[in-house]
UniProtKB/TrEMBL annotation:
Ranges annotated as biased composition (Basic and acidic residues): 60-85, 104-113
Record flagged with keyword Signal: yes
Upper lineage: Eukaryota, Metazoa, Chordata, Craniata, Vertebrata
Signal peptide: 1-19
Organism: Lonchura striata
Protein name: Uncharacterized protein
């Protein structure tokens, strides 16, 4: 008989836990729904304001030309990066004089340039 009461109590506890969980999910869904409604209302209000003001301001011809030039330079830079060339240096050429990998550390730097040469310290 006590085993039956234990089973009943376990089932009641599980039902209460599921009920609380379900209630929490319902509140969360209601909050998300309310936020979505508010966003839609705000979006509609902004669209109405935009239509009343005559639409979005169109960019000027100078802005368009500047943006087109920037797009072209970015396309060229992208092509160079695809080929493995960065800032005019070829990453594929190991024997190239311009390749940073072919120089020893500190080579090509002038003294007093503001950059410390790598190494253990100043020459004696």
């Amino acid at each position: 008989m006590s085993l039956q009461w234990t089973a009943v109590a376990t089932f009641l506890y599980a039902e209460a836990a599921l009920g609380a969980s379900s209630q929490a999910f319902r509140k969360q869904a209601e909050g998300a729904s309310q936020a979505a409604r508010q966003y839609l209302e705000d979006n509609d209000a902004l669209r109405k304001q935009l239509q009343e003001s005559g639409g979005a301001p169109s960019p000027t011809r100078d802005e368009n030309e500047t943006l087109k030039a920037k797009v072209e330079s970015l396309k060229e830079e992208l092509e160079l990066s695809k080929k493995g060339e960065v800032w005019g240096f070829s990453q594929n050429s190991q024997n190239s004089q311009n390749s940073p990998k072919s120089r020893s550390p500190g080579e090509g730097r002038e003294r007093g340039s503001g950059h410390a040469a790598p190494g253990p310290g100043p020459d004696p």
